[in-house]
Amino acid sequence: MNSTEKSAQDMALLLQGLGTFQAFAPWSAAALRELLRSARLRRYDRGAPVHREGGGGAEALAVLSGCLMMGWSGLGGEPLSLTLVGPGTLAGIGGVPEPHDETRYAYHAHDDGTLVAHLSAPALLGILDAEPPLWRGMAPFLLRQQRALLATLLHQLSGPVRQRLAATLTRFSQIHGGNDTTRTLRLRLSQEDLAAMLQVTRQSINREMRAFEQRGLVNSEYGSVIVRNLAALRALGHGA
């Protein structure tokens, strides 16, 4: 990871990146610059730790490019992979967990070159509280994001394994390549990643992936899945 002091170029990238977040659309230039005074811009290689709750200061993570693997663990435990979050996600705004709360979320870079803005959560909340009208943009944004995350986890954890796997691959394809169903797309996801997220055995994932390959939906490679028919995967994920 490259770590340098914030330069004029970093500030420009931060302003440009946050400008793509609907939550920050109502913010004045002065409010954004106040927030970014303590912000850090970091670029991460795949697998690098980005943030762990309870491991330092309270931070909100704004994903500018690439994806993060979101994990969960108890106190001192190894994170269990939950799901991927992509560009436009604002994570960790809740601040420091309470001492009695054993839930800890951790984030690792999933893609090489993942670009993240580390924002001070107290500074962010302080500006919102000082200018309450700004909550009218932030609160609906966070609610939509939470709803989407909950829907993703429900699709991963409820229903037949085949349907859950198809829905998961569809969502991750959309994060990486949009909704273009004509593209062949490579996802850097291992069968171990998928098994952890769907809470099934690796053997179950392997069996379903072979079935997908026979239908021409995907090809499996070591550490990767090549999506060949996104439209059919989406239909299967919807239970068709």
Written description of the protein model:
- The protein is elongated.
- A hairpin with a 6-residue loop joins strand 4 (68-73) and strand 5.
- The longest helix is centred in the middle third of the chain and has 23 residues, at 135-157.
- A four-stranded antiparallel beta sheet has the order 1-8-3-6.
- Helix 4 runs antiparallel to helix 5 (161-177), helix 5 packs across helix 8 and helix 6 (191-198) crosses helix 7.
- The chain has 240 residues and is an alpha+beta fold.
- It has two domains: 8-149, Jelly Rolls; 159-237, Arc Repressor Mutant, subunit A (Orthogonal Bundle), CATH 1.10.10.
- The model has no long low-confidence stretch (mean pLDDT 86).
- It has eight helices and eleven strands.
- It starts with 7 loop residues before the first helix and ends with a helix.
Task: Record the SSE blueprint.
Blueprint (H helix, E strand, L loop, with lengths): L7 H11 L10 H8 L3 E5 L4 E4 L6 E7 L2 E6 L6 E6 L4 E2 L12 E6 L4 E7 H10 L4 H23 L3 H17 L7 E3 L3 H8 L3 H13 L3 E4 L2 E4 L2 H8 L3
Antiparallel strand pairs: 1-8, 2-7, 3-6, 3-8, 4-5, 4-7, 9-11, 10-11
Helix pairs in contact: 4-5, 5-8, 6-7
Low-pLDDT residue intervals, each spanning 5 or more residues: none
Oligomeric state of the chains present here: single chain
Largest sheet: 4 strands, antiparallel
The total domain count is 2
- The second-level CATH architecture of the largest domain is Sandwich
CATH class of the largest domain: Mainly Beta
What is the helix/strand order?
HHEEEEEEEEHHHEHHEEH
The termini sit apart by 43 Å
Helix content: 40-55%
CATH 4th-level superfamily of the largest domain: Jelly Rolls
